[in-house]
Amino acid sequence: DSNANSRSLMAAQLRDLGVAHVRQATRIKDARVILEHKAYDIVLCDYHFDGSDVSGQDLLDELRREQLLPYSTVFVMVTGEATYAKVAEAAEAALDAYLIKPYTSASLAERLANARQRKRILKDIFEAIERQDFEAAAGHCLKRFEARAQFWLYAARIGAELLLRLNRHDDARKLYEAIIEARTVPWAR
What does the alpha-carbon distance between residue 46 and residue 166 come to, in Å, rounded to a whole number? Predict the structure, then answer.
């Protein structure tokens, strides 16, 4: 976050929640350098950075594209943007959480707890991806989707992306169609 007061507040809230080590960045490029060299459990990132054409969303996309952000990291976008377009964009990016300013410590704690629980439950998928065993990861996703197990929709999204990566386009299309049929989700369209 480029705002010193916001960063200070976030750091204090994280410490109150038991996060022992908090590192701050004022600019996107500084955040990228920090995340290139060390993995973090949680990243809170503002959407807008003063004086930058690059957004927090751009940072997330770049980190994922270059495989610099472990799947185990919880990435929370913090923003004052509450428009449908921005919330839809966040959903399409499969953020772990989206937090709209102003927010309370309780809402931050709840979002982090939910995101960390999802990461724990989907751990087999994320570990397979980090081993670059995309077939196994896709298999875990499909199994969870078919069983409609907890976080099945999130797993289906990851599975469809993995199937695309594996050039199994027809399987990915079937999964996207099943997701749309099961529940209207804008990113699947």
Answer: 33
